[in-house]
Amino acid sequence: MKSWITRAPLDPAAVLAEVGAAADGAALLFLGIVRDHNDGAAVRGIRYEAYVPMAEAVLREITEEAAARLGTDRLAVVHRTGELEVGEASVAIAVSSPHRAEAFDACRYVIEEIKRRLPVWKQERYADGRSGWVEGVRPPVAGAATPGPRSHDRAGPPDRSAGSHEAVRNGARGAAGAP
Amino acid sequence: MRVRLHFFALYRDMAGTDATDVELPDGATAAELIGRLRDRGGSLARLPAEPAVAVNLAYAPLDTVLRDGDEVALLPPVAGG
């Protein structure tokens, strides 16, 4: 199992090579690709921005949840940041399992949860020279004055060591669009 | 106490900076921090009253009590993928 955030162009074959085993009869590779239009506007490219340390923690958590659904730890998930052109991959998800149903389910879970709660934003560059932030979905966080974790049971300031980051998992499911 | 505040994407454009330190009274909540920012006026007044917030790299409800040294982030609606 592997998950990471990178500024480097994605290598789909390398991501797929992270999974697979003799016991596996199914292997999937999903790519999210920058397309040339959105909401009727011609798009030239997208700049992806992430809250990197939090995105790494959330992506790891999503991947672990998907592994539990999958029944194997053979997942590799990567999300790119920075300036991407049309046709470049922003996300790659590779999954393998003995049978296809679990692999499809886990792959779908990962992309939908990325869209629902990964702290990443995108700014589209349009053919006419304008640019704009893509309207996103509110991540599943409890609102004001809602019972939730109090100060005694949450993480302290980040010391950049792993292990203390836990995202809120409850709340309404956001509307997740197609990649 | 003092917290480190990070802005991202649209909210960074509003704030004109990606991070700043904010002095708060002891016991202040994330909601109180946001209220103070909005009261500063300017483009920060356009911040929503209840944005998504992360405290120390995890999503946190707005009634979370902040502590000295906390890393607080205001997160616009997310758009990964």
Report what the structure shows.
The complex is a heterodimer of chains A (179) and B (81). Chain A is α+β, with helices and mostly antiparallel strands. Chain A is 23% helix and 30% strand. In chain A, the strands form 2 sheets. In chain A, strands 3, 4, 6, 8 and 9 form a 5-stranded antiparallel beta sheet that branches. A 4-stranded mixed beta sheet of chain A has the order 1-5-7-2. The longest helix of chain A is centred in the middle third of the chain and has 19 residues, at 52-70. Chain A starts with a strand and ends in a 46-residue tail after the last strand. Mean pLDDT of chain A is 86; it is low at 143-152 and 161-179. With 81 residues, chain B is α+β, with helices and mostly antiparallel strands. Chain B has 2 helices and 5 strands. Chain B has a 5-stranded mixed beta sheet with strand order 2-1-5-3-4. The longest helix of chain B has 10 residues, at 30-39. Chain B is globular.
* Helix and strand composition category of chain B: alpha+beta
Question: Unreliable runs of chain B, pLDDT <50, ≥5 residues?
Answer: none
The chain-level mean pLDDT of chain B equals 96
Span of the ends, CA to CA of chain B: 37 Å
Spell out the helices and strands of chain B N to C: EHEHEEE
> What portion of residues of chain A belong to β-strands?
25-35%
- Class of secondary structure makeup of chain A: alpha+beta
Which shape of chain B, going by the Cα principal axes? Answer: globular
The percent of residues in helical segments of chain A reads 10-25%
Instruction: Please indicate the percent range of residues of chain B in DSSP E strands (runs of 2 or more).
Output: 25-35%
Oligomer: heterodimer
Radius of gyration of chain B, in angstroms, nearest whole number: 12 Å
Compute the number of helices of chain A: 3
- Which runs of chain A of at least 5 residues are low in confidence (pLDDT < 50)? 143-152, 161-179
Secondary structure: number of strands of chain B: 5
What is the number of beta strands of chain A?
A: 9
> Roughly what is the average pLDDT of chain A, rounded to an integer?
86
